[in-house]
Amino acid sequence: MCMGGFLDGSWIDDPGGRFSNRYHAGRAIVEKFGDVFRNLEGKGVVVGLPRGGVEIAAAVATELNLPIDFRSVKKVGHPFQPEFAIGAVDISGTSVRNPSVNPDEDPPDKKYKQYVQKALEEARKIETDLRGSGTSYIRTADWCLVVDDGAATGLTLLAAVKGLKSEGKKVYVAVPVASTQAKDLIEEVADGFYTVQLPKLFMAVGQFYDDFSPVPIEAVRKYLH
After folding, report:
1. Whole-model pTM?
2. Considering only CA atoms, which of 40, 15, 206, 224 is closest in space to residue 126?
3. Which domain, by its residues, includes 27?
4. Is the pLDDT reported for residue 105 higher than 80?
5. pLDDT of residue 100
6. Predicted confidence (pLDDT) at residue 195 exceeds the cutoff of 70
7. What CATH code is carried by the domain that includes residue 153?
8. pLDDT tens digit string along 168-178?
9. Is residue 96 part of a domain?
10. How many domains does the chain have?
C-alpha cells in the first residue's frame, strides 16, 4: 500500500489558482501526475464517479489514452439533513461511515443499515441507467484510476476504493483538490492518492472552480459511450 502519493512530497498550503472547469481540472491531474500513471503495470481504466467525476475522467482518459468507465456510489445522507453525509455506499454493497459525525447525531446501527440500503438502491438505479447493456472495462482491468471533481469528506471515493479492492483491483485515486480529512481517509486504503491541490482552508469543492455547474446526465452518457 502506498502511503502518501504526492509526486514530489510537497504540501500545498495555497490553493494556487482556480480551475476554469472540470475538463481543465482533469488535464491538470495528468499534467502533474501523468508519468506516474503511464508507468503503472498491467491493464488500466479511468473510473469517474457520476456525475462530475465522469467529466474529469473523460479528460484524464483522453490524455492517458485509457478506456473510461464509472463507479456508481451514493452518499448516505443524514435523515434530517440530507446534504450532510453520514456515510457512503458503493454499488458492490460496501459501505463506510463518516468518522467525524458527532455520536449524538449518528443514527443507531439498525437505522443506519436502512439508510445504506436506500442509498444502495439509488446507486443500482444509476448503474442500470448508465451501464445498460454496455461493457464494463473495470472487470478486465488490473488497476483502476478513480477520479472525481474533488474530495471534501472523501466518503464516496472511500466507498468506491473499498468496493473495487474487494473485487481484487489495485486502486489509485486522483482529484484536482482535496481536504486533508479526505486525504487521510483515502490514502489509508488506496494503493496511491494524488491531488493537485491540498489547501488548508477547504469549505466546498466548488470554491476551486470558475464553472462548477451540474453535469447533465446526457453529457455523462456521451462521455461513457
Report:
1. 0.90
2. 224
3. 22-72+134-224
4. no
5. 84
6. yes
7. 3.40.50.2020
8. 999 999 999 99
9. no
10. 1
